Amino acid sequence: MTTETNPRGTSFIDQILDATLSRRRFLGGAGALAVAFALSPRATLAATQPRAGDDPAGTPVGGWVVVAADGTITILYGGAEMGQGTSTGLAQAMAEELGARWSDIAVQNAPVGASWTTGVPWTTGGSSGITRHIAAMRVAGAQAREMLKAAAADAWGLPDTSNLITIDSTVRNTWTGLSLPFAQLAAVAATKPVPASPALLRTGQFVGVSVPRLDIPAKTNGSARYGIDVVIPGMAFAVVKNAPVLGGTLKATPKVPAGATAVVNLGNACAVVATNTWAAIMAAKQLSASWTTPADATSNSSAAVLATAQGLMTSGAGLVVAEGNPASAAGILGATPTLDQTYFLPYIAHAPMEVPNTTVVPTYDVLGTLTKLDIWASTQSPTGVKAAAAALVAPGVVINVHSTLLGGGLGRKIETDYPVHAVKTALGIKKPVKVIWPREEDVTHDQYRPMALSRVRASIDPTSKLITAWSNRIVSPSIAFQRGRLPTSGIDSSGIECAAIATGVPYVAANPNHAVEYVRHPSSIWVGYWRSVGASINVFVVESAIDELALAAGMDEYQFRRAQLLASTDPRAPRFLAVLEAAAALGGWSTPVPVGRARGISLGTCFGSVVGEVVEVSAPVAGALVVHKVAVAVDCGNVVNPNAVEAQMQGGVVHALSATLWGQITFTAGKADQNNFNKYRMLRGREMPVVSTTIIRSTADPTGGVGEVAVPGIASAIVTAYAKATKTARIRSLPMFPAASTMAG
């Protein structure tokens, strides 16, 4: 299927239902509802109004389905809804097995600690929101279906359920045509045994269909509740002030500034507490604190980080071979390979629209002993938050983590640094408190996407134009190492993601003369899982090198890629070729380019999906460009909700454009130089290109991720198109326009 989206993003207007209550009026006037919701441990994601209480109204059937007397079927959802639509996608899988009517479906966050699959953490990341749980959601739906059928068999005095089916939220007797609604059967169904291995129907009624997103109405009428919206009666408000130099610590608890009620020492930061958030922000500006400066602050300047990377690129200290045979590749490459170029990518911040925030309510007994913590967190990892909180309190303290909607996550909210600050603050003042990181704290103390320096050397056969040897050496900080999880092999899988032939595009799979090498950069600047992680680095490098090889071969970039894939013996090659061809067709690659414009093309993969992209740009003035069109072809295997896939392709394009054109965080003596959007440029609405999407239905992978996969390929395609449009030297260091990285103008 192929769809085209207006630059203003109106493709889902049909899902907006009666948006008559503005969010601002809702927050200002719905005090009673806000309090009731804040006391609920789960954020309702459905179009219906949030309910108070610990559980959705109704009768649980099988543990993951709750049937209300009015016919509402609430599906408990284990994951983070941050705009990617996984709550709807998983509900589709369950509703299909259940035999429900879509208009009856609502979703609500399940309690932390419950899991459909033993050993699977309740964490949303790596584009796995659907892939991790869809199979179990189907089973849960099928279990509830069989229990409802058993209840109907009792009601009709039948010996078994062999002639019963579920359809439109009813159990129907195929012999008599009689039916009973789920609401009437729920009480008896709840008493039935939960079948261990129910048959799965996979009817296709909902999975693979663009049903209306369940979270959209509440987000448009103002009733959706994000973490930052949580209000607890009598709570305090606090903002975090981190050590100005990364790695610094507080020497002593500072004096409480005017306008504040308390200051809590958090070790590497302090929390300034007040009666409202604005008062806390203003008081924090007056804070007089003394901080330590770590010994490595000077080495954490951008110039020093790059110099270290350049030295490691040459010396190879700590080098590990990730894949292939460096000696064999070097022998074929010789002294003068066809290509020998180095590419650079900077640190990048996540900067989600909703800043990191957590609300904590501590409960004490009559002796003043802590007995319980209730935590409302805008988090991608409720289980991580629970574990981090448990490490701060005595054994036996009950910890309840209540997930809310996220105003963006992008990998930042998988971390637990900000919830830990909130728990410490609540314990310090012994009362409920909402703690936020203001934008300046988030941007300057993020866990950034790592910088990277990559050198690619490659040779092609002058006759066949096929790649004969390939070597890619990567120098980059290790996310796994900073978290103490680097394998004994010394290889950070995210560091080589999509650079290795086994996990990337199989251009040289038929050639044994290839090598991927990795050197860990020792910088202590915090790094983390930015949207598409290592793929956002390595796809830029690999696809840039492929474009340069095509130029050296005197071939069109699309045809050069086709030639490599057609010659590849990798069994994945046909899948990649199909995506490449679909992207070229959608992007009009074979048609004349409008005067003053140029096109670029890329192919990439991550999280089980393959994406091809064609961009069309112009450069009306020196040092700038306009992206007019982006065509995206995606093969994500089994498609759950096509509209959601399309939306994620659009979002990935926006994210990638901002990063490619302007995104960078630079450092001076351990301090980030950018602290807000005024210095960390984002794509404006008027700059949004027309995005066309084609979804390739395949069975190559059961279900691939889609939340991140449109990001990696944009940069190289734009860089190539820009070089063609301007007839200038190719850009090999990102961002393309660092001098324009402000929102002024």
Backbone structural class: alpha+beta
State the name of the first-level CATH class of the largest domain: Alpha Beta
Strand order of the largest sheet: 10-11-9-17-14-15-16
Regarding quaternary structure, how should these chains be classified? single chain
Report the β-strand fraction as a percent range: 15-25%
CATH architecture type of the largest domain: 2-Layer Sandwich
Please give the domain count.
Answer: 3
Summary tags:
745 residues; Aldehyde Oxidoreductase, domain 4; single chain; seven-stranded mixed β-sheet; five-stranded mixed β-sheet; disordered N terminus; 3 domains; alpha+beta
Q: How would you describe this structure to a colleague?
A:
This protein is an alpha+beta fold. The chain has 3 domains: 11-221, Aldehyde oxidase/xanthine dehydrogenase, molybdopterin binding domain (Aldehyde Oxidoreductase, domain 4), CATH 3.30.365.10; 227-293 and 356-436, Aldehyde Oxidoreductase, domain 4 (2-Layer Sandwich); 301-349 and 447-740, 2-Layer Sandwich (Aldehyde Oxidoreductase, domain 4), CATH 3.30.365. Helices cover 28% and strands 21% of the residues. The chain contains 19 helices and 26 strands. The strands form 6 sheets. A 7-stranded mixed beta sheet has the order 10-11-9-17-14-15-16. It has a 5-stranded mixed beta sheet with strand order 1-26-23-22-21, with helices on both faces. Helix 4 (134-156) packs across helix 5 (182-189), helix 15 packs parallel to helix 19 (714-726) and helix 16 runs antiparallel to helix 17. The two termini are 39 Å apart. 55% of the residues are buried.
